[in-house]
Amino acid sequence: MNLQSMTGFARAVAEHDGTSIAWEVKSVNGKSVEVRLRLPQGLERLEPAVRQTVQKRFSRGNFQATLTVGRAAGQQAQPVVNEAFLRDLAELAKRLQEQFGAAPATADGLLSLRGVLDIPETNETEEARAALDGAILSALEVALGGLEQARQGEGAALRLLLSGHIDAIEALTLRAEADPSREPAVIRERIAEQVRLLVDASANLDASRLHMEAAFLATKADIREEIDRLKTHVASGRVLLAGGGAIGRKLDFLAQEFNRESNTLCSKSNAATVTAIGLELKAVVDQFREQVQNLE
């Protein structure tokens, strides 16, 4: 299955019986499917169907869908002005201007007041209304198809980036595993040197006891477990990317696991070379997690 990012834009236009229809849809990152709609007055009835259509197609993202409908001249209802009410408002505005210095009223301001201008609904039959609704929803499907393609195009690019990050994590893990500081002979020599320094500093210290304590600390500092877990997470990441689909949440959890292991590797390291590898690993994991945030 294809990967999808959560960002994209698409536009679709259609015409139905002299009425022009245009949808613009866009999406950005989101934890779930959230839909904001801008529908023309009189078409609010379509809101449930539009939301359901978006939710069926996508699993994550914040969506904004804007519908523009232009009716032919013969289909447009003529506006009705309540002239008596308008006249009363105009006189009131004039008195306020003369008595209190209020700004003069404008025609568009007066017409925008509730009750002054009314645009009656056109006399549509149920059949005509249903046909228009169907045409609008069909155009929406086309727009959402375009949006899905845009999201998949970015998802393909993200797949390559994430795959490269996983390769880098694997390479760093193998470098840490093969680092000379982890050789038993090197570890023994380091422990012996530390014990010699402590014994030389104080004759009262028990050398055998120090050897036991140093060996215990060396065991705690071993990063074998972290390396094994990192290898397992690398394999899991490749399986997820190969399978595709809505894997953003799973990859985000995997990024957290990568981050946890890289932190532990740094904290347990007793060699500068391994610490450097751990820090480099953390940088790659941060990039991986940042990219994962864009996936559906």
Automatic annotation (TrEMBL):
Keywords of the record, alphabetical order, are: Endonuclease, Hydrolase, Nuclease
Q: Where is the Endoribonuclease YicC-like N-terminal domain?
A: 3-159
Which cofactor is essential here?
A: a divalent metal cation
Record domain Endoribonuclease YicC-like C-terminal: where: 185-296
Question: Which Pfam family, an example, fits this chain?
Answer: YicC-like_N
Checking InterPro entries in the record gives: YicC-like_C, YicC-like_N, YicC/YloC-like
Q: Indicate the family of this protein.
A: Belongs to the YicC/YloC family.
What is this protein's name?
Uncharacterized protein (TIGR00255 family)
